[in-house]
Design a protein that fits this description.
CATH superfamily: Umud Fragment, subunit A
Largest sheet: 8 strands, antiparallel
Distance between the termini: 51 Å
CATH topology: Umud Fragment, subunit A
Order of helices and strands: HEEEEEEEEH
CATH class: Mainly Beta
Oligomer: single chain
Number of domains: 1
Length: 151
């Protein structure tokens, strides 16, 4: 069984790897990125973030208000130049993530024992399908609340 380390220690190890020109691979926990990452057997490989992320990049960032470390997908940009993130298994968006909050970007991941790169065709198709499902879920939720939950 693997030992858990503190968030600050993990970030220090990650930055040390990056300063040596290495990538860092680890197993994330949580369910916000299901079905892409199951949080038990899947791994992600991190590299230092570029100057500016591209839409649909999966980034590892620190929430400025709580200090919590999060692994989510970039779904857009806000008016102030900040990022908008959301997990694949969530339909709410997190606004106002700053460029300085991003600690790393995912350059590869394993799912069900298969390594996948962000440039793979199947992965790009998965992203498009997930974003369509997210929009449909949001729309269905709004219709449901309008029809059945209003007072």
């Amino acid at each position: 069984m693997a030992d858990k380390i503190s968030f600050d220690d993990f970030v220090a190890v990650m930055q040390e790897c990056f300063s040596r020109g290495q990538e860092l691979t680890f197993t994330p926990t949580g369910t916000s990125m299901l079905p892409m990452l199951d949080g038990k057997n899947d791994t992600v490989t991190f590299s230092p973030p570029p100057d500016r992320l591209k839409k649909y990049d999966v980034a590892f960032y620190r929430r400025s208000r709580t200090g919590q470390l999060v692994l989510h997908r970039l779904v857009g940009f806000d008016k102030n130049g900040g990022y908008i993130f959301s997990g694949d298994n969530q339909y709410y968006y997190e606004y106002g993530v700053g460029v300085d909050d991003v600690l790393a970007v995912v350059t590869a991941f394993t799912h069900d024992g298969k390594t996948c790169l962000p440039t793979d065709f199947r992965y790009r198709f998965y992203i498009r399908r997930m974003m369509l499902k997210k929009r449909l879920r949001m729309c269905a939720s709004k219709v449901y609340h309008f029809l059945f939950k209003r007072k």
